[in-house]
Each structure stands twice: as structure tokens, then as C-alpha cells.
Amino acid sequence: MLRHARTWLGVLFLMALSANTSASWEVNMTPGVTEVSRSVFNLHMTIFWISVVIGAIVFGVMFWSMFMHRRSRGAVPAKFHENLTVEILWTVIPLLILVGMAIPATKTLIEIYDTDDADIDIVITGYQWRWQYNYLGEDVSFMSNLATPRDQIANQAAKGEHYLLEVDEPMVVPTGQKVRLLITAADVIHSWWVPALAVKKDAIPGFINEAWTRIDEPGIYRGQCTELCGRDHAFMPIVVDARTPEDYAAWLAEKKAAAAAEAELTSKEWTLEELMERGERVYTSTCVACHQANGEGLPPMFPGLKDSDMVLNDVAAHIDVVVNGVPGTAMAAFGKQLSEVDIAAVVTYERNAWGNDTGEVVAPIDILNFKNGQ
Amino acid sequence: MSAVIDNHHADHAHGPAKGPMRWILTTNHKDIGSMYLWFSFAMFLLGGTLAMVIRAELFQPGLQLVQPEFFNQMTTMHGLIMVFGAVMPAFVGLANWMVPLMIGAPDMALPRMNNFSFWLLPAAFGLLISTLFMEGGAPNFGWTFYAPLSTTYGPDSTTFFIFAIHLAGISSIMGAINIIATILNLRAPGMTLMKMPLFVWTWLITAFLLIAVMPVLAGVVTMMLMDIHFGTSFFNAAGGGDPVLFQHIFWFFGHPEVYIMILPAFGAVSMIIPAFSRKPLFGYTSMVYATGAIAFLSFSVWAHHMFTVGIPLTGELFFMYATMLIAVPTGVKVFNWATTMFRGSLTFEAPMLFAIAFVILFTIGGFSGLMLAIAPADFQYHDTYFVVAHFHYVLVPGAIFGIFASAYYWLPKWTGYMYDEVLAKTHFWMSFVGMNLAFFPMHFVGLAGMPRRIPDYNMMFANFNMVSSVGAFMFGATQLLFLFIVIKCVRGGKPAPAKPWDGAEGLEWTVPSPAPYHTFSTPPEVK
Q1: φ and ψ at residue B159, rounded to 5 degrees
Q2: Where are the transmembrane segments (chain B) (predicted)?
Q3: What whole-number distance in Å separates Cα of residue B333 and Cα of residue B190?
Q4: Nearest-angstrom CA–CA distance, B458 and B443
Q5: Are the Cβ atoms of B148 and A205 closer than 8 angstroms?
């Protein structure tokens, strides 16, 4: 029986080993890539070793007693049941150890809370289930969505190396500069965490929390939302792309130009095909989690759009729901999350996909007029 | 004249009533204690089944068995059922059985209320479990039910969940009042407070904690109810409310709650270790004061669950220092247990095995708790699997092993038969190995960066998750063995003497095994 159990465990172990080449047996925290993350790592290791030493002493006494003072070895129980000196000692010594531990912890905490004199400010807004990055004073703002295809999650395709830790647009920051993060949320509470930066801060509706980081090395650092935020909590990763200040400046200029071009797109004449193509992309990154790829939704929480009366007949109501959301439900207000072009495209897509075939085109300018008319 | 009447009365000393009405109408502390214990074990198996669903989904990366919305219902219901349905009622059951026997009382002070507080529980959990079958599904916002996910964004079944919590809370408060009334009023002559067995002491302190914090829980769920149905905005930022306020109130309840789930186990273990070491407990007085200190401090550490919500620096420092301070009285307890074993004459029957494992593994959970107290480091641990590992180490080998140790220790007294020692030791070793296999690797994946409450994860977490799942299945399956051992012991076996453990102390061992339906009708004399 026991031998069988062992064989099975061995088989499972081998399965685990061979299951994925990229699977790792990592057991510890990353020291990270910032001064703060290294201080945090040192605190972590210090308190860990303190625990190991205390544990070794206490468990040592227990195991010693278990082996030496067992009745089967003829141990005769002692009678003592108190000793004031010992009791005072093991109250005072741990207290001193704790004070010794509290000092460096306090120093690091003060450093973490010093958000003054930042070079760059980025407002991070958590939505169900994506992050928005808004570079303050730069007119650059974008959504960052999970880039892992749904078929990988459903095990219909091989999983990539950065499965669930990849996004369509990462947050780009320069190395060596103090980046202040102003973190908030639009619906429920989320939490923005990148282990390599040792930054974890809750994104709370109605609050703007501050954090900061200064990254030493260019690189790509990955993290995830760490506060349960509903259905797709596991599917809103964070990717930080740290570049040299020159590369960052180039990226920023490119983003500004793209934003200007995007604004121009609003006044452009769009064909149904162009809008459908763009709309499908927007739908896939933004809407599909609730309303599903086939447009049938997951009633009653997430209503279907296919053959929906509103989608087929009431354009104004349809635009209103997408722009302003439905209060008290999971339907968010996308007016500030998506550009006019994207909203027009996705509304057009929804009115023509899955056999809805209304043939109607909703142009970006219609969305702009709707917003201005509010 | 009165002597005649008394004799007459004694002739009619009655046993239990017959049929199901015995259980529905009983006011006997032993019957009610047994019902509490059976109920909590049923909830333990149900909550464990939900955990098996969670571990099966997490066996490999990708979504295999369940969808994320159902996964969230599983984590939520697992937590709620284990905390409110399994651990808390189990300790109330132990208190019902043992507190009157330990202090030489004939019954609980308020026997009718005792019956009512038990029967509220099936109602509460019937309501809670029924949400799994409702349209829109069961609560899916985690057992901590943070607003606004649980209010504005919660499923319709949230209202049922709120009423279930209300009922369970009323039951706990009544149970606590009853225990305090019993301990303070019904002790046998000569049993001063400082002569009380530690299980009685820790339960007395726990009961005060319950009375202090269960109304706070009732308050917070009522505010949720108002937000959902009556248009208030306690927790809705858009209406001028404050989502962080929810967390402050919840954890003001939640942190003492953690000690509610562990202090009675401290008490039981403090009786079991001396019994099998054949040596008096080291530092009885300091044990009592340490328990009091832990309970007192537990009211001033709640925000250490909220280090990442953006509390100001000074607040963060206060809660960090206060939390670290809890390590001192907790350390005193652990040192006392270790010293009790030192130079004893040890044997390793099932209660002792569970008690020793309790001390060692709970201490490991204490160490990770100390690490979590360091606020800057907590930014890396918070809401990861490291936290899941931490609280399972204090709750499984803490609360649950404490309950198993107690059950084996007192089963002979309850049933009149010895349990099967070989099976019990098998139960221990399977639980021990399974539990460590399940929860130790969670430290690793948490430190490597895996958030908690996710149904799917990157491949770098795959290996340890598979190990965890194997351990969890092993631990889960082993509990059916415990059910078998208990049923076997109830049905028969080697008859147990009044005092089956030679090193045991206390009034409960002065009555025959099984304990008669009515004990201590005349109070014993304690010297």
C-alpha cells in the first residue's frame, strides 16, 4: 500500500516536471530592479532567517524532548511548572528582536511613502478587467488589455511563455527617473502589483493612492491585479516596459503623433467594412469577456446582444449604454475608456455581427455629437 | 420534609427522550454539544468538497473544469462555510460538552437558549448553501466580501448571504453569552478562576471577543443591505460613501475573529500536552495572561490586513508595531508548551500527535504572520498565495488539528469506548503529510508572484500548484477516515475507563465513561 502510494507520488512528480518546460521550482521572492525592492527583499530575508533561528531552537527543544524524554525510554517526569527568570527572559528577548526588526522596516516604509519630486506622473485606473494609463500633462492615455488569446485559456492552443502576463500595450517608463503612480479605479477595487518593483497599491474608486518607482535597468516587468475584482480578476495583467530615457522620449513622441492621428480619424468618412473590422478588434479586447464571442452573453448577469431589441432597433439607447454604462450593473461607462472611433466601430459591429445585419453605420462623429449633446 | 421530596425526585432522574424530538427539543448540554460537533463536521466535509473543486481547477494552468464566475463562488463559499460553519460551531460544541464537565456544573446556565442557538445554524447554512442553486449564482466576492464588489456588483443572492450571516451571528452571540454565564456562575465550590482548566479560560476570553465583534459584523452586513436595497451609499464612492470604510469595519470584526478560531484550540492543547507529558503545564498563570494579552491586542491590529489600501504613514507604522507585538504573548505560549514537554515522560497517542503538530505547524504559521507584519515586506506578500499559505497554516494545523486533538482526547468520555488507535494514527499521519504537501508549496508560489483567488495562472507556478493539489486531495480524502473512526467508536470498541489517560487531570475524568446524561447534579468539591 505504502509502496504504491510512493510510486504514484513519483509518477505525479515526473508529470509535473515534464508538463511544461517553462515551469519552474522558484521558491523565493525576486530582489527586483529598484532600490526599494532590494530593501524590501533584504527585510524579507532578515525576518525569514530570524524565524528560522527561533524555530530551530524551539523545535529543537521539542524534538529533543520527543526523543530523549519518552516514556518508552523510561523517562521519569520532572515536577517543575514555573520559573520566573526564564519567563521574563523569553518575553524580553523576543521584544528586543522585534525592536531590532522594526527599525529597518520603518526606514524602508518612510522611503516608500516619499512620493515627492517625481519626474513623471502616470494616472493608473483599474477597470473590470483592464488597466488604463494616463500620462499626466502629455495627452497620452491608453487601455492595456490582456493579450493572451482566449483559445490558450481554453486549452485549445499551446500556451505561450508569458501566458496571462502579456498585454496589448504595456506601460512604458524611462529608467533612472522617479515615476509617480497615481492609482485609482472606476468600478470595484483592484490592486496594481509588479513584484520586480515591489509596488503594490490598491486601486479604489473615489480614492487616488500614490506610489512611486525608479527602475535601474531597461527591461520588461510583469505583474497582475491582486485584489479580487470579479469574474476576470485573473485576466488583467500589468506589464511595465522600462526603456532608456532616449527610447522613452521617442516612444512618447510616437504616442502623441498617434493620438493626433486618432483624433483626425474621428472626422474621416468610414465605410461599414472598415468599422466592422475595427469594431471586431475592440469587441474582442473589451466586450468579449461578458458578452461572449457569439454575442449571446451570459444571462442574466451579462445580457446577450445577438437579436437584442435595443441593438436591433434603438441606436440612441445603444450608444448611451456604451458611453455611459448601466449604473448598478457590471456594464461600465466606456465613454472615457475608448475613443470615439472605437465606440463607433464597436457599436456598428454589434449592430451587424452574428446575424444582427441592420446594415446601419454609426460614424465616430455621431458619438462625438452624442457626447457633446449630453 | 424537604429531604423526602429530594429523595423522591432523585428516583425519577430521567434519561434522554426517545425519537427525533429528543434532538429538536433537547436542552441537555451533551446532546447539544454532539449536535454542534456533527453539524460542524458536515460543514467541514462540504467546505472541503468546495476546496477540492478549487484544487482540481488549479491542478494545471488553463481553465479545465469550471468557469471563473463559478470558481469565485467556490472560494467564497469555502471560506464562509469553513469559518462560520465548521470551525466556530466545532469549538462551541466542544465548549458545550466540556465546560460544564470541567467546572463541575450540571448543565449550561441557559439551556433553552442553548437549544435555540444551535438550531439557528442549520437555518443559516441552509440559506447560505441554497444560494448555490440560485439564478446568478452564489456569493462570488470572497469570504471577506469587500464592497463595492459585494454591493453594487454583487449577485442577487447577496441578500440571502447577509441574512445567513445575521442568523449565524445571533447564534454565536447567544452561545457566547451562555458560555460566559456558565463559567462565571456555575463553577463548583472551590474552583476559583485561577484553578480553571485552560480550555475554560480560553473559551471565557473567546466568548468576550465574540460578544464584542459579532455585532460589528452584523453592522457591516446591515450597511451592505441598506446600500443594496434602500439606496444608501455607505460604501459607494459615487454617492459620497467610502469603500475603505467597509474594510475597516470588516477587519475590526475579522481580526479578533481569527483569535476566536484559535484561542479555544490553545486551551485544549494546553490540557493535552501536559496529559501526555505526565507533567504539569509550564507557566499556567502566564498562559492565562498571554491569552488575555492576545485578545486585547487583537482589537488594535485590524489594519494590517489593509497595508496596501493607502493608509497614512503614521497609521501604517502603528499597525505594524502593534501587530509585531502580538508575537510576544504568542511566543510565550509556544515556549510554555515546549517547556512542558521538556523532561516529561512522553507518549504519542493520537491526541498528543495532533497537539504536537499543532504547536510546530501553528508556529510556522506564526512566523509567516510575523513576516506579514513587516509592512514593506507585506507589499510583496499581500493578496498572494503566501497569505493563503499563512492563514491555512494557522487554521488547519491550528484550529482543525486542535479540534481533532480534542475529539480524540475526549471521545472515550463521550462514547464510553476507546477509538481505534491504529486508525487514528493513520488519520494523523495522512493529514499531516497531506496538509503540508498542500499548503507549504503555497508559500513558494506566493513569493514567486502568484495572486490569490485566481482560477488560472502562468506556467511558472504550475509545478507547485500540482503538488498542492495532490496534497489537498490526500488531506481531503483522509477526513473520511476520521468519520469512519468516530462512527466506529460510537458503535463500540474497548470500553473506556472513567480516566483513560493516566496523565490527564480535571473533573471530567471523575465521572464515568460515557458521561451519564446528567452529571454533577450535586456539585463536586474542588480543593
Answers
A1: -60, -40
A2: 35-56, 76-97, 118-138, 158-186, 198-226, 258-276, 288-307, 319-338, 350-375, 387-411, 432-450, 470-490
A3: 27
A4: 16
A5: yes
Cβ within 8 Å of B, A 206-245? 206-207, 209-210, 223-235
B452 is catalytic: yes
Q: Provide the pLDDT confidence category of residue A284 given band limits of 50, 70 and 90.
A: confident
Residue B227's alpha-carbon distances to A188, B151, B230, in angstroms, are: 15, 7, 6
The answer to the question of residue A1 being in a domain is no
Q: What average pLDDT score do residues B38-53 get?
A: 97
**Domain range spanning residue A298?**
266-373
Domain co-membership, A43 together with A162: no
pLDDT digits (tens, 9 = 90+) for B232-286: 999 999 899 999 999 999 999 999 999 999 999 999 999 999 999 999 999 999 9
Domain co-membership, A156 together with A244: yes
Please name the amino acid found at residue B291.
T
Report residue B467 as a C-alpha cell: 503538488
From the list B305, B390, B392, B413, the catalytic residue is B305
A203 versus A24: the higher-pLDDT residue is A203
- Alpha-carbon distance B42 to B30, whole Å? 18
In a domain, A300, yes or no: yes
Return the CATH number of the domain spanning residue range B23-510: 1.20.210.10
DSSP state letters, A57-120: HHHHHHHHHHHHSBGGGT---------HHHHHHHHHHHHHHHHHHHHHHHHHHHHHT---S-SE
User: B345: which chain A residues are within 8 Å (Cβ-Cβ)?
Assistant: 69-71, 75-77
Give residue B10's pLDDT.
46
Q: Which of B29, B187, B304, B390 is catalytic?
A: B304
Output the 3-class SS for B140-161.
Answer: CCCCCCCCCCCCCCCCCCHHHH
How far does A191 lie from chain B, in Å, by closest CA?
A: 8
Task: Name the catalytic one among B78, B166, B390, B427.
Answer: B78
- Which of A56, A88, A112 delimits the end of a domain? A112
Alpha carbon of A331: minimum distance to chain B alpha carbons (Å): 10
Predicted confidence at residue B472, as pLDDT, reads 97
Nearest-angstrom CA–CA distance, B78 and B47: 5
d(CA B498, CA B494): 13
